[in-house]
Amino acid sequence: xxxxxxxxxxxxxxxxxxxxxxxLWQLFSKAGQPGFLAIIPIVNLFILxxxxxxxxxxxxxxxxxxxxxxxMFLIWQGVAENFGKGTGYAIGLFFLSPIFIPLLAFGDATxxxxxxxxx
Length: 119
Fold this sequence. Notes:
With 119 residues, this protein is mainly α. It has helices at residues 4-30, 43-52, 58-61, 67-82, 87-95, 97-106.
């Protein structure tokens, strides 16, 4: 017989993952992108980079160890700026994504556009 505690943990984890997908879906939709792309691995990174206003080659930086940490922070900073938020919000997106992504997605922030060209 399965341990009921582990089943409860799996259900909570599954609900959390679904909630985060919904938040990313809404975030992408707010930025004028197809929301369903949030659930497709790697493709969601391309869209996030585009929302941040970065060039396509930033995706390559995400696959380089240690560089990816700095690149991801700068991507979140671009996302925050394009939604009218500051560096403090970018720090929140980087360190506390499960809290700040839903706040950005479901809150009253509006997408102001990207600063650089699209792909």
